[in-house]
Protein: Phosphate regulon sensor protein PhoR
Organism: Alcanivorax hongdengensis A-11-3
Amino acid sequence: DDNRILQFRVTEFGVGEQLLMARDVTRLHHLEQMRKDFVANVSHELKTPLTVLKGYLETLLDTIPEEQGRLRRALVQMDSQSNRMEALVSDLLLLARLEGTEANNLNQAVAVHGMLNRMRENALALSADKHHRIELDVPEDARLLANPAELESAFGNLITNAVKYTPAGGHIVIRWWQDDKGAHLSVSDNGIGIDPAHIPRLTERFYRPDNSRVTQTGGTGLGLAIVKHVMIRHNGRLEIRSELGKGSTFTCHFPPARRVSHPAAIAG
Ligand code: ADP
């Protein structure tokens, strides 16, 4: 077969290993691309039937009278599960796009304060019955050269997680700063925390330290994988620090080239 012939030639020429390796890497790369395309296609194909199902469910829920208790409860369950599936499909599609397509539109000057402030309000609404204190420590004129939609997904996931994994009455801080190393966004909480042994694997898709919690929190298991890929596309990185039972800090580090200098700074 192909490989043997190649191996034979290679031994003859005595440059074997590198060539074989190059060949293997090409094949792996090809398989990886096929996997990514497959996930993207499946997600895309699932979207339409799901939308139709959700439409009918909503109509049914609107028309079934209150006294049909059992039927209504079944429909409410179906509705909530189809929402879950929709969130999964949409995160899978987003991740496939982040991994499998060339990054573009990466250099818009994004007004970070406004974006984070909106997210803070959403988070407060989301956690209304948990009475979290959510602090925003972000300069009003903070700007970042980035893709705004991708940034929104990344920051949104970190803030939603802080809300999800922090018990009632907890404290969450969203902080932004710049220095000579670049621009940085951190989301800290004093929530349940993570056993450090799990931290290296947290950004893997569907990796969860404690599987029993999955259905309660309602996440897709893809949030941190999305954050990681957004950071890679922006030449940045995600740093995770946590202590079990004490809380966590997730920090997005952006390289200096993504900072937006102030006119005064340019003039000076
Ligand atoms: P999901 O939240 O949907 O499970 P993510 O990829 O966003 O998926 O997060 C992966 C896992 O990391 C979560 O299941 C949770 O165990 C842990 N995690 C993420 N953020 C936090 C946080 N702020 N505090 C504690 N654990 C967290």
Remarks:
- Residues 36 and 100 are 6 Å apart (CA to CA).
- The longest strand covers residues 171-179.
